[in-house]
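Consider the following assembly input.
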Amino acid sequence: MLSRRTILATSAAAAVATVGPSQAKAASLDIKIDPYNQTAAQKALHAARFEKLDQESLMSFAEGFKSWNGKDLAGRGQRRITNAFLRSKGLPIGRTEMGYEECFNLMLEEPSFAAKIRFNRSAQALMWDRALRAFHGEADKYLGLMEQTDNSGPGSLELNPDMHLPDYTVHEIHAQPGGYVGNPFAGWIYHWALTQAFYQARNQYDEVFTAIAQDCVKPVDGQVRRILDLGCGSGLSTMAYKERFPNAEVWGIDAGGPMVRYGHYEAVQRNLDVNFAQRLAEDTKFPDGHFDIVADYLLFHEVTVPAAEQIMPEIHRILRPGGVFYHDDSPTIGNPNVPMSLTIYAKARAWEDHRHNIEPWILGYRHTDFPELMRQAGFEVDLTIRQNVHRKRAIFGTKSA
Amino acid sequence: MADTKSDRPTYTAEYIKGDFEKAVYLDSVHSDNLMTAFLGLGAEHWALRRRVMVLEKFMAEGKVIDPAVVEAYEPTPEEKVAWEAERDDFIERTFSVLTRATTSVTGAIPTEKVPAREP
């Protein structure tokens, strides 16, 4: 990391500070990047490595352990054991009407499931804790790095520390200490722990986020002048949109101040002209018809159903006629691209995610007919677009021209 | 959590703390704690093992070992694959006992013969 940061710091220092958000350039430019066959330069730009060997090694262990725990206990062994357990109880292996919590409590009676949950939770805590220690251990240094870029470009950063944050945004989502709003290094921790461990070696060079951006369908007229990444988190997908559409004005907004602050810091390191702002998805502050594309990755399962019902019309409002809404999140009813399992085992795992991994709103999201929510806001919904070679679950909506 | 060692602006806000650290999934809180400690030891062991691999590499090349270079060492793509395979093997042989069947041993000692082990 030292060499990468040293090199990139030079280019960042040379960048001219901007006084306001960047503007779109005239011509639409569309750069193809193969997420899984990146050049050495692209890998160097996308890599995130801890500064100390032990930090990287601890995260390497968390990555390997989460992968093993998911594969070996949930895979071939777990299915056989689960089925035998359910048969012994006279319960169905297939779909059930039992409640989520009831399924979870039942499955905890099966020892290997209980061990799996214990390890899942402990591995998650290990991942967050070791990342947290890495950044809090040198708090002044990392705060200083962000201070250096808060007011410099390329791109812009808008922080609104006095903004009212709805309660639904301030939970410790994913059991991440402090959540997205309560830890000054939330963006660092989220990016580095997820990249190193959560995606289990599948995102070491931003492959997931590059694929998301590359898979986005353009408006029919091909014009992509402005893109909004809604609920952008630490900005990885936002930066990937800018890499694909370098002439477009790209925005990322998120409720978490520390998240967008890190996103801006990282964009400056990558010399990417991206605008980040701390704003709510249900109140984006953008003019009517402003964007050609509005995208969200994993936003809607992190918001309440009432908030989702406010966000959807807001997306429709800020898209121009013919503009595209690109949604990529976990399964819901009404989305045939990602069938939702409602077995006892699946419901038990979903309850673990909801209650023990602090996903407060995911069950409401799962049972929202998301395509219908889009239609109610005025979108023409296309569930047949599965052109995305990399990701199969996206839903695209178009605002009528 | 919002507090840091300095008075610099952090742009943080109050948050709702989860209670996930209190959860018990096994037969007692001690079993849960031991599993978590076991996992932590596994992580520390792997960190040490990885450090030894870096040191062994420098020693094999006859280089003077500079702590700063050791800290910054980035494995080659080939080393990365090999090290991850070693890590996965370590995890498998250490933690796979958790996948064993949960039946108890009762009745007479087994009498069924099985083929001899391969070398």
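The first helix of chain B runs from residue 29 to 60. Ask yourself how this observation constrains the way the partners meet.
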